[in-house]
Design brief:
about 240 residues, Rossmann fold, about 25% strand, five-stranded mixed barrel, alpha/beta
Length: about 240
């Protein structure tokens, strides 16, 4: 099974789905299970069906735990992202690393059975990244490389000073969710590939006030391309 978590503007994977409630130690999660190319794909809209869950209230641990419980052997996630450098609005970017000093989620709340310090030298699976590139190429969809995404807590957008600081730290993208979620997949030992959609230039770079609507509009515009990549991607997963 492939686990998929969709970000802003990506609330539905397919029409013909089996919706099920998955209990976890962190609360229950509603998951939509569809069949793509003869393979089961479990989908969770990160912000809920109607974007009712703000980024700092997403139950990240429950979502990842639910996918693990369902038997996910690979995961595919998307993130609406502000652009700090290197990319332009509308770009689809393969993530290669992340920065997350401000957000923290973990399954290891206790060291009673010994310390748990997870190695995150490779947060995104190189093998799955290659599959995603091949999937995009089938439909001649441009997929940029080199994404380093920073995560702030939200729900507010970042300040221009924060964006400048993040750029100096090596980030070229910024969002409010990846830093919470990606480490959990590492802890759960589920190989992950993530695609960021560059929705807008970050604060101080855009020349205008940022709005959520421009983010959603770009995600909706690029949603079908992401789905095409995903539908080809699942064919590579055993």
């Amino acid at each position: 099974m492939i686990g998929v978590i969709g970000g802003s503007g990506f609330y539905e994977l397919a029409k013909d789905v089996k919706r099920q409630k998955v209990p976890t130690p962190y609360g229950s999660v509603f998951v939509s299970v569809a069949e793509i190319d003869g393979k089961e794909v479990a989908f969770i809209p990160r912000h809920g069906d109607n974007h009712s869950i703000p980024p700092h209230k997403v139950n990240y641990r429950a979502n990842v735990w639910a996918l693990e419980q369902l038997g996910a052997t690979a995961a595919f996630t998307t993130y609406a992202s502000g652009i700090i450098s290197k990319y332009k609005p509308g770009d689809l970017i393969l993530l290669e690393d992340f920065i997350s000093f401000f957000a923290h989620e973990t399954f290891f709340d206790s060291f009673e059975d010994g310390p748990h310090h997870t190695d995150v030298s490779e947060p995104f699976s190189k093998e799955l990244m290659e599959y995603a590139e091949e999937a995009a190429a089938i439909h001649a969809i441009g997929l940029k490389k080199g994404g380093v995404i920073a995560t702030t807590i939200g729900p507010r957008f970042e300040t221009p000073a924060e964006v400048k600081a993040l750029k100096k730290m090596g980030a070229n993208l910024v969002c409010m969710t990846a830093g919470h979620e990606v480490p959990l997949f590492t802890e759960a030992e589920i190989p992950l590939v993530s695609i960021a959609v560059g929705t807008n230039l970050a604060a101080g770079l855009s020349g205008h006030r940022l709005t959520h609507q421009e983010v959603v509009d770009m995600m909706i515009k690029k949603r079908e391309e992401v789905k095409l990549i995903l539908k080809e991607f699942v064919k590579f997963i055993d």
